[in-house]
Amino acid sequence: MKRLLVMTLSLIFVLAGIAVAKDYEVTKKAGDYDVEVKIDKNPPVVGDNNIEIEIKDAKGGYVTDAKVVVEYTMPAMPGMPPMNYKADTKLDGYEYKATMNLSMAGPWNIVVKIVTGDKTSKMKFSIDAQ
User: Fold this and answer.
1) pLDDT digit string, tens, across residues 111-123
2) What pTM was computed for the model?
3) 52 found inside a domain
4) Distance separating alpha carbons of residues 43 and 114, to the nearest angstrom
5) What domain range is 77 assigned to?
6) For the chain, what is the domain count?
7) Structural domain contains residue 3
8) 67-74 and 106-116 beta bridge pairing
9) Which residues, including other chains, have CB under 8 Å from residue 78's CB and lie 6 or more apart?
10) Closest by alpha carbon to 102, among 42, 47, 64?
């Protein structure tokens, strides 16, 4: 009886944790911009991961006239060359959206490139795909 109760409570806690799991979020500066990136899986996984990017200017207004590209790379490892990929984004309201397809588990370096006019700003961060 105790064992059944413990297993039931454990299952409830696991399911509750899944139900309230948040997106993977990173907020950083990129030049004059405040950039917030959300990935729909936390932690990111091998395969498709949807990414949403919000960009605000120094006055707090949304930037909707930029070309935004997401570059994601895995560094070279013994017996394996580096992997380099790029995803163009599409503007949807105030968010730039794209899908990253991570080909294997491990460390990935992400660069969000923001081009407005003749100016390019970059936001860099790392993830560990599961």
Assistant:
1) 999 999 999 999 9
2) 0.82
3) yes
4) 24
5) 22-129
6) 1
7) no
8) antiparallel
9) none
10) 47
